[in-house]
Amino acid sequence: MTNSTSRPRFATSFGVIATTVGSAVGLGNIWRFPYETGSNGGAAFLILYIIFVLAIGVPLICAEFIMGRSSRLNIFGAFRTLAPARGRTWAAVGCLGILAAVLILSFYAVVAGWTFEYLAESLTGHLNDFSGPGRHTAFDSFTAGPRCLFWTLIVLAANAAVLLGGVRKGIERVSNILMPILFVLLIALSVNSLFLPGASVGLSFLFRPDFSALTPAAVLSAMGQAFFSLSLGVGTMMIYASYFSSRTPLIRSALTTAALDTLVAILASIMIFPAVFSFGASPEAGPKLVFEVLPDIFAGMPAGSVAAAAFFLLLVLASITSTISMSEIVVAFLIEQWGLRRIPAVAIHTAICALLASLCALSFGPLAHVKIAGFTFFNLFDFATSNILMPIGGCLISIFVGWFIDRSVINTQLAPAPAALIRIITLTLRYIAPAAIAIIFIAGLV
Ligand code: PFF
What is the tens place of the pLDDT at every residue in 213-269? Predict the structure, then answer.
């Protein structure tokens, strides 16, 4: 076991923001958010999403930050040491978080692998194979074939390489480098989109709300998207906060993380929707939006291959800073609870995820017929984590901090924020967040 004095810390406050924003910004913003917005009515969805981020997301990030920094442990250890009684029962909630992190990485690595393939194809000038009338076949035959498995394993290897560098030299350094590049690329690509002919139709879809599009299902999706995008409920923000200095202001960091994450989701939509409308594609293409619609769009753009390479590089960078954050939950658990060194901890985690991710990768090909409760492995892991484990984890973390952690710990951790703000956050964690999550969770399952 490591004690808190020998534990690593992030070196700078820039590192704090780069790592937490790096975790939050990922495929969830650039791949998932635009297609969710596109399928759920555009601007109205965006407004609802922002409400969820502010009303539930920010308090929950604060809750994870409080648990992480006050315990200076992984999610399992944090629950066990902070619980005033029944530490073992609460530690089981930590096990749920660790399980969720393993499952998320296992399907996320597959989609990240697709982005690696698309980047490689753009760089070698072959992205056109994925455009035109044959694009469905091209995408389907790629995801069903061995290259999909290959890229999934490459993602896990790249992820392991960063983790082996440790907290400062691996996670923090890589996030410090990748996040600024990501912002520059994103801004350049969204400005480029604004100059496309007919961009205004895409922008008005994104910014002119039509509240009649807000079905109950859209409300559920907006909340699920907020959880996924802010990496909530599994202990990511908790493990990163355990590496914060004791002077890092938690509420301000939570707000900055949520604001930058939302900004990226909006910029990603500004980059994608004008292009979608300008080239006559459908904004409702669903999960395939980025992979089937964009290659067509890039093919028809001046200097489209440069834009394509930049875009898929953006996705690759965003996905790696997220995979390292979900992995660190498990690696820190293995180091702190099992007494392993970092190398074997990373090796064990990577081996388990390689096995599970292979099942997910193959569920588009040889394992497509293997169904559990009607889901392929890929869909099962996606559904079980986003719709079940993350909301349950988030709800229990909220209840735990709201009801079971000493008020003085909360006040000390959230200082120097104004008392009224601390009170609003505590009340939200006690009542509003658990109630909202429970209602939406139950409605979602029904
Ligand atoms: N927030 C990441 C994204 O938007 O892509 C996904 C994610 C990262 C989910 C880390 C969960 C997690 F623990």
Answer: 788 778 888 888 999 999 999 999 999 999 999 999 999 999 999 999 999 999 999
Query: Ligand 1 within 6 A of 159 CB?
Result: no
Q: Which range marks the domain in which residue 99 is found?
A: 4-445
Per-residue pLDDT, 5: 58
Residue 101 C-alpha to ligand 1 middle, in angstroms?
9
Decide: 428 and 414 in contact? Cβ < 8 Å: no
Question: How many residues in total does the chain contain?
Answer: 446
**29: Cβ below 6 Å to ligand 1?**
yes
Q: Which of 27, 227, 231 to mutate to test the pocket of ligand 1 (most atoms within 8 A of CB)?
A: 231
Q: What is the pLDDT of residue 129?
A: 84
Question: Residue 353 class from Cβ within 10 Å (0-12 exposed, 13-18 middle, 19+ buried)?
Answer: buried
What kind and span of H or E run contains 381? helix 377-383
Tokens representing 339 are 């007494």
Contact 246, 16 (CB under 8 A): no
Using the predicted structure, report yes or no on whether residue 1 has a pLDDT greater than 60: no
What is the number of domains present in the chain?
A: 1
Tell me, yes or no, if the pTM score tops 0.85. yes
Whether 193 lines ligand 1, by a CB cut-off of 6 Å, is: no
pLDDT digits (tens, 9 = 90+) for 61-87: 999 999 999 999 999 999 999 998 887
Mutate to test the pocket of ligand 1, among 186, 229, 328, 392 (most ligand atoms within 8 A of CB): 229
229 C-alpha to center of ligand 1: Å?
6
Sign of CA dihedral 379, 382, 385, 391: negative
CATH of the domain at 274: 1.10.4160.10
Task: Tell me which residue has its CA closest to atom 11 in ligand 1.
Answer: 231
Mean pLDDT of the chain: 92
Counting ligand 1 atoms within 8 A of each CB, the residue from 322, 329, 381, 385 with the most, and so the one to mutate, is 322
Residue 443 has pLDDT above 70, yes or no: yes
